[in-house]
């Protein structure tokens, strides 16, 4: 995917409705979880494959995928990626079932929140670059945001959804914050890294913690495939009356370098139940640069 020319990538720039829906190529520096950081990576975003020609959708997180249209982009590639999306959906449901059985005695409980979650879930393919190459990359034109602090692969954050499955390459770079320090998440061949998302943390009252993590990739190029499994668009976000009830970010309330991390509720109290889809659309819109 990332071997496509800059011209091909530019021909299918990420589709944005201004409200958090993203499909297509995301250029270097075009997203960041922190306004003061430049994330030196490019990405390709796709989701549920709808029937060809479908134009009406139930919500703002549903919509058609955007694929390369060049002679060297085979139809088989699209089929492989769609099959991979389906398998990651199945794997997420299997993990949710095991967690549900352990926590609540029945495998179906957590799945009830995600009956149509696959239709808004997204797969993201990431390509990280050494920071020193930023100015020479397409999209990385050397301009830096006001109050710029640093380059990074991915800013410290928690994942906002239900569950995240990560396939990383041997280069490494994924780190989780625990016991007041950043810890490398090792590469293990044939395995996936599973992160609980903020929504799962909320509905389990913190039994499944949503960890703060980041990606550092300052020396070598790095690739990863990340599947964000979501609950239903209309899934209710539980009322939160006390910040301590959030249990988002685990023990990372005081991240060592005092950098804020980007979570679903931004560490705030919600006195009125909200809709997951509305929140997630605002969150994705907020990281677009």
Structural summary, described in words:
This protein is an alpha+beta fold. The chain has one domain: B-lactam Antibiotic, Isopenicillin N Synthase, Chain (Jelly Rolls, Sandwich), CATH 2.60.120.330. 19% of the residues lie in helices and 22% in strands. The chain has four helices and 15 strands. A seven-stranded antiparallel sheet has the order 1-2-4-5-13-8-11. The chain has a four-stranded antiparallel sheet with strand order 7-12-9-10, with no helix packed on it. The two termini are 22 Å apart.
Labels describing this entry:
289 residues; globular; 22% strand; Jelly Rolls; 7-stranded antiparallel sheet
Q: What is the name of the CATH architecture?
A: Sandwich
Please tally the helical runs, counting DSSP H or I stretches of 4 or more residues: 4
Query: Largest beta sheet: what is the strand line-up?
Result: 1-2-4-5-13-8-11
Instruction: Determine the mean pLDDT.
Output: 83
User: Gap between N and C termini, in Å?
Assistant: 22 Å
The total domain count is 1
- Overall strand count: 15
Strand content range: 15-25%
Rounded to an integer in angstroms, the radius of gyration calculated over CA atoms is 18 Å
CATH topology: Jelly Rolls
Q: Quick one: biggest sheet?
A: 7 strands, antiparallel
Which overall shape is indicated by the principal axes computed on the Cα atoms? Answer: globular
Kindly provide the name of the CATH class: Mainly Beta
